[in-house]
Design brief:
By secondary structure, this protein is of the alpha/beta class. It has helices at about 5-10, 20-35, 70-80, 80-95, 105-120, 120-135, 155-170, 175-180; strands at about 15, 40-45, 145-150, 185-190, 190, 205-210, 215-220.
Length: about 220
């Protein structure tokens, strides 16, 4: 049915990701059978999502939306791995990652340029400044952070899963959350949480840092 679209609109060129090559070629076959000129197939590389494994997809929660706020866009791009950065430079900037640039500076440059593309230079500069205040300077207590109210389950695995989903619309499984905790990525009030079984006391408030670029303020 997807290939039949090419017949119905008498497509001259079809552009799609590399994962769509089969469908595009089926469209060419159907056009030939209908006596039409066969369309030109053009494919583009698939961009891996923020997790670095699966393709960027809203349903997988590993995406950066074009209409996100400058701060969220910048922060999400700062969360990619150093290994994934070269791929983003190649596909998004059409450049080779500078070999002599420190990974953190290279990532900031990438995030700033992409944010500037959609929001302008001034907004990108503010996003960089905000990021530096919130994470590089580690001044989380005074930073403006999303407010998060825990549900009935107050173990840190549940807190991490719910905070990602509620405040950042990012899907994280309990296994993912457990790995983040055991890997030392999660901090509560500036201290690493290493035991997934730890439970937050009722009414306790403070800053929960989820990864290098995201943190929430637990308000009760």
């Amino acid at each position: 049915m997807q290939g039949w679209d090419s017949v119905m609109i008498r497509s001259d060129v079809e552009l799609g990701g590399t994962d769509q090559l089969f469908n595009i070629m089926v469209g060419r076959d159907l056009q030939r059978e209908e006596g039409q000129q066969q369309q030109v197939a053009m494919t583009m590389p698939i961009l891996e999502g923020l997790d670095g494994h699966q393709k960027m997809s809203k349903s997988l929660g590993n995406y950066v939306a074009l209409n996100e706020s400058p701060g969220d866009m910048f922060g999400k791009l700062m969360s990619i791995s150093d290994e994934l950065m070269a791929r983003y430079y190649q596909i998004l900037l059409h450049e080779v990652l500078p070999a002599d640039m420190h990974p953190m500076e290279a990532k900031k440059a990438l995030a700033r340029r992409i944010t500037e593309r959609f929001h302008g230079a001034a907004a990108a500069a503010r996003a960089l400044e905000e990021f530096s205040t919130r994470f590089s300077a580690r001044d989380l207590e005074s930073a403006e952070l999303p407010s998060f109210v825990p549900g009935a389950a107050r173990d840190f695995v549940s807190l991490v899963v719910e905070a990602f989903a509620q405040c950042f619309k990012v899907s994280r499984s309990r296994s993912d959350a457990r790995r983040l905790i055991e890997g030392g990525s999660i901090q509560w009030r500036g201290e690493k949480v290493s035991d997934p079984k730890v439970v937050l006391a009722e009414g306790e408030t403070g800053v929960l840092k989820l990864d290098k670029t995201r943190a929430v303020r637990i308000s009760g």
